[in-house]
Design goal:
27-stranded mixed β-barrel, 42 strands, twelve-stranded antiparallel beta sheet, 742 residues, mainly beta, 58% strand
Length: 742
C-alpha cells in the first residue's frame, strides 16, 4: 500500500448548471455515473478481500489506490480507505476523504470533498455519492461540475434508478466565468430547472420548470422542454422559429421542421407566413453518399397578384474514382426580384451548370461543362444571354528537361448559342515551350514560345454597315516572349528592402481580332496593376493581344519588424502599333504608350494601413481609375474609407458606365464588451446619391453575443422597395440563438 499526503482540490463556486442546453446537464449525469466506472473490487482486493467473481481472469487494467489508511471488515464485507484517498484508473482520478466498498451489497460510497477528474478535462465535485457496482442505481448530493470548456454545472441532488434514468434536482448551468472582482455576482446568463431527466434507453433529456436568468433576473420560462441527448446526432422535430418583417412582406414568421429521413439524408421544411403576401413553402433536402453529396433547396408561393413565384438551388457532387468527378449546379428562379424580395439571396445573376473533370497524373487535366445563365439585374435581356453547351478544356504541362525547359498544351472547344445574337463554335489550341533561368548574378529570366490556332464557325453575325456573316473563320498567332527581373536587396538598420526592376517583352504578328469573330468571353477587360506584366490581358479566348510590345515597371518593398511594411509598384506598356479592335478608348491601351498603372501599399503601424491602386493618363497624369482603401485608428476609435473611381471603357460589350463611389465606416470599442459601428455608402456619379447607411451595436463576452443593426436602403427595383430595416440577434454560447429582423 502506498501512502501519501496531498492538498485538497479547491471547488468552484456553486452558481451554474445546464438546464436547457444539450451538453451541460447530460454531461453532469454521465460524470456522476462515472464515479463507479472503476473496478471497485480492487479496493477490497487491496486488503485481501475476495471480491465478487474472484478466481476469474480479467483484462481490466490495474487500479492504483493511495490513502492515509485502509482497513477491511470481513464480517461486513466492507473495504474502507480514509484520509486523502486517491483512486486512479486509466485516465480517471477520484479524490475523496473516505471511499468504501461493500462487496456483499455491491455498493460504493464516497464522501468528503469528493472530486473526479475525467479524461476530457472536466472535474466533478460532490459532498457524497452512493452507487451500485453495476452502475444501475446511485445517488450524489451537492453536485458541482467544471467542464472542459470552463462551463459550470451544479445540482442539489442526482439520482440514477435501475431503469436507465438519470435525474437531477434543481440543476443550474452557465458557461459564463465568475466576475473576478465579485465572484458572488450573478453571471451574464444562466439556466435553471427544477428537474432534469435523461432516459438512456430513449436517448432523450427532459426539463421541468426551466427558465433563463440574465444578470440574476428571469427573462424566459417553459414548464416543459425535451431534446435528444448528445449521443443522438440527428432527430426529427421543430427547430427554433424566426420572426420579423420587411417593408416588402410585412410581418413574417418562419417555422422550420427538421425531418430525419435516414442515416445519411434529411429534409428541413420551412413554411414562411407573411402579412402582406401569401404564405411561402420552402425546404432543403440533403444527402451524402460514399463518394458524393447532394443538397437542394426550393420555395414556391402565390403572391397578392395571384402570380406563382419560386426558386430552386441545387448542388450535386460525385467522385467516380481517383480520376473522374462531376459537379452539377442548378440555380433558377421565376423572375428577377423574387429571391431578393423573399430573402433567398441577392445575386446579380444565377448560373446553372454541369461539369465533368478528369485529373490524369500530376500534369494533365480535362474538363467539360455546360452553362446557362439567368440575369437578375434591372433591364437584363434573356434573349442576349448565351447558352454554353458544351465547353471543353484540356491542359498539359510536361516534365522539366535537362536544362529546365518544359512543354505545355492548352486546348479549348466551345459551342455557344444565343436567341438573338450570333452563335459561335470554337476550337482553340495553344502549344508552348518555356525555359526558366537564373543567372549567376541573380537576375531571373524566362524564355517562352507559343503557337496558337483558333477556328470558328459563326452563325447569324450582324455587323454595322456590313451584311450578315455566317461561315468559317479563324486565325494563327505565333508568339515569342522574354521575362526578366533583377531583385536588389539590402538591409538598412532593422529594415529589409528589395528593389526589383521587371521587364516582359513579347512579339507576335499584329492583327487577329477580325470583325468576323464575335466577342463573347473577353468583355470584362480592365488594365491595372494585376495584369501589367501579362502577355495577354484578356480573360477569355475571343480576343488576343498581338504585335511587338514591352511591359516594364519597378517594384519596391520595405519590411521592418517594428515599422510594418511598404510596397510600391508602377509600370507602363509600350506597343509598336495601335489595335483599336482589341483596345478601345478609355482602356489605357488605346495608344502606343499606355497609361501608368500601379499600387501603393503602406502599413507602417498596426493602427494605420493604406492601399492605393491607380491608372494615370500618360499625358497629364490625370486619374482614370482610382481605388483607395484607408484604415486608421486603434480599436477604441477606428475609421475606414473606400473610394472607387473608374472611367467607362469604350470597348465592345462594356457593361458599366462611369463609376464613382465612397464608403465610410467608423467603429469603436466603447468598452471591453461593447462595440459600435456606423457605415455610409454614397454613389458620387452624376445620377447617383446615397446607397445605404447603417448603425450597429454589439455586445460580446465569453458566453453571450448580442448584435443589433439599424439600416436604411435607398435603392428600389420593381416590386422591391427600399426603406428602414432593423435586425437583432441573441446568441447564447452552447445553447443557441434567437434572431429577428424588420
Amino acid at each position: 500500500m502506498i501512502l501519501h499526503r496531498r492538498q485538497k482540490m479547491p471547488s468552484p463556486p456553486l452558481f451554474g448548471g445546464r438546464g436547457l442546453g444539450e451538453g451541460g446537464a447530460f454531461a453532469m449525469l454521465v460524470v456522476c455515473a462515472g464515479l463507479v466506472a472503476f473496478p471497485w473490487s480492487g479496493l477490497a482486493a487491496a486488503q485481501g478481500a475476495e471480491p465478487p467473481g474472484a478466481g476469474q481472469t480479467t483484462d481490466e487494467p490495474p487500479v492504483l489506490i493511495t490513502a492515509d489508511e485502509m482497513d477491511y471488515d470481513r464480517e461486513l464485507g466492507t473495504a474502507t480507505a480514509r484520509g486523502h484517498v486517491e483512486v486512479t484508473y486509466q485516465d480517471r482520478v477520484l479524490l475523496a476523504d473516505t471511499v468504501s466498498y461493500n462487496s456483499r451489497q455491491d455498493v460504493v460510497t464516497a464522501s468528503g470533498n469528493v472530486s473526479l477528474v475525467n479524461p476530457d478535462g472536466s472535474v466533478m465535485f460532490a459532498e457524497y455519492t452512493e452507487l451500485t457496482g453495476d452502475l444501475k442505481k446511485g445517488i450524489a448530493k451537492n453536485i458541482r461540475l467544471l467542464m472542459a470548456d470552463r462551463s459550470r454545472v451544479a445540482a442539489l441532488e442526482a439520482r440514477r434508478d435501475g431503469s436507465g434514468r438519470n435525474e437531477m434536482t434543481r440543476a443550474v448551468y452557465s458557461p459564463c466565468q465568475p466576475c473576478r472582482d465579485d465572484p458572488e455576482r450573478p453571471p451574464v446568463w444562466q439556466i435553471k430547472a427544477e428537474t432534469v431527466t435523461q432516459d438512456e434507453t430513449a436517448h432523450q433529456v427532459e426539463y421541468h420548470d426551466a427558465w433563463i436568468e440574465m444578470f440574476g433576473q428571469p427573462v424566459a420560462y417553459t414548464p416543459y422542454l425535451s431534446h435528444p441527448d448528445p449521443s443522438v446526432k440527428r432527430r426529427s422535430g421543430f427547430l427554433p422559429p424566426t420572426w420579423g418583417g420587411t417593408k416588402n412582406l410585412g410581418a413574417t414568421l418562419r417555422l422550420p421542421y427538421f425531418w430525419e429521413l435516414g442515416p445519411s439524408s434529411d429534409f428541413t421544411f420551412t413554411p414562411v407566413l407573411t402579412a402582406s403576401e401569401g404564405p411561402v413553402l420552402s425546404g432543403e433536402y440533403r444527402q451524402r453518399f460514399d463518394k458524393g453529396e447532394t443538397k437542394t433547396g426550393a420555395s414556391i408561393t402565390r403572391d397578392s397578384r395571384r402570380e406563382v413565384r419560386g426558386h430552386i438551388q441545387s448542388r450535386n457532387k460525385y467522385e467516380f474514382n481517383d480520376v473522374w468527378r462531376s459537379d452539377v449546379q442548378i440555380d433558377r428562379t421565376t423572375d428577377d426580384t423574387y429571391m431578393r424580395r423573399y430573402g433567398f439571396g441577392n445575386k446579380p445573376w444565377l448560373t446553372t451548370r454541369g461539369t465533368m473533370e478528369g485529373f490524369f497524373g500530376r500534369r494533365s487535366y480535362f474538363g467539360t461543362s455546360a452553362y446557362t445563365f439567368q440575369g437578375l439585374r434591372r433591364g437584363a435581356n434573356s434573349s442576349l444571354t448565351p447558352i454554353v453547351m458544351p465547353v471543353m478544356d484540356y491542359n498539359y504541362m510536361g516534365d522539366p528537361g535537362r536544362h529546365g525547359g518544359y512543354w505545355t498544351l492548352d486546348a479549348n472547344a466551345l459551342v455557344l448559342e444565343h436567341e438573338r445574337a450570333a452563335d459561335s463554335r470554337r476550337v482553340s489550341v495553344i502549344g508552348g515551350w518555356s525555359l526558366p533561368y537564373t543567372a549567376p548574378a541573380g537576375d531571373i529570366y524566362k524564355l517562352s514560345a507559343t503557337l496558337r490556332g483558333d477556328a470558328y464557325h459563326i452563325g447569324d453575325l450582324y455587323l454595322n454597315n456590313r451584311p450578315k456573316f455566317t461561315g468559317m473563320t479563324g486565325r494563327v498567332n505565333p508568339e515569342v516572349a522574354l521575362d526578366w527581373r533583377y531583385p536588389f536587396a539590402r538591409d538598412v538598420g532593422e529594415s529589409h528592402q528589395v528593389l526589383e526592376p521587371i521587364v516582359t517583352a513579347a512579339a507576335s504578328p499584329p492583327g487577329g481580332n477580325t470583325y468576323k469573330i464575335p466577342n463573347s468571353d473577353s468583355r470584362d477587360f480592365e488594365f491595372d496593376d494585376t495584369n501589367l506584366f501579362s502577355r495577354n490581358r484578356f480573360t477569355g479566348l475571343d480576343r488576343i493581344e498581338t504585335g511587338p510590345r514591352i511591359n516594364y515597371g519597378v517594384h519596391f518593398s520595405d519590411y521592418s519588424p517594428h515599422n510594418g511594411h511598404t510596397s510600391v509598384l508602377v509600370g507602363q506598356t509600350i506597343r509598336s502599333h495601335v489595335d483599336h479592335k482589341a483596345f478601345g478608348g478609355e482602356t489605357g491601351l488605346e495608344n502606343k504608350l499606355s497609361d501608368y498603372v500601379g499600387r501603393v501599399d503602406i502599413a507602417p503601424y498596426g493602427n494605420l494601413n493604406l492601399l492605393y491602386r491607380f491608372r494615370l493618363a500618360r499625358e497629364d497624369l490625370s486619374p482614370q481609375r482610382n481605388e483607395i482603401t484607408l484604415g486608421a485608428g486603434p480599436k477604441p476609435l477606428r475609421v475606414s474609407a473606400n473610394y472607387v473611381q473608374v472611367r467607362k471603357p469604350k470597348t465592345e460589350g462594356a457593361e458599366f458606365g462611369d463609376r464613382e463611389e465612397l464608403a465610410l465606416q467608423v467603429s469603436s470599442h466603447l468598452t471591453q464588451y461593447w462595440r459600435l459601428g456606423v457605415g455610409y455608402r454614397y454613389n458620387l456619379a452624376s445620377n447617383g446619391g446615397p446607397v445605404n447607411t447603417n448603425v450597429g451595436l454589439t455586445y460580446e463576452d465569453e458566453c453571450f453575443l448580442f448584435l443589433s443593426d439599424v439600416g436604411h436602403d435607398f435603392t428600389a427595383d420593381r416590386d422591391i422597395h427600399g426603406g428602414t430595416t432593423f435586425m437583432f440577434r441573441v446568441i447564447f454560447k452552447s445553447l443557441g440563438q434567437v434572431q429577428t429582423g424588420l
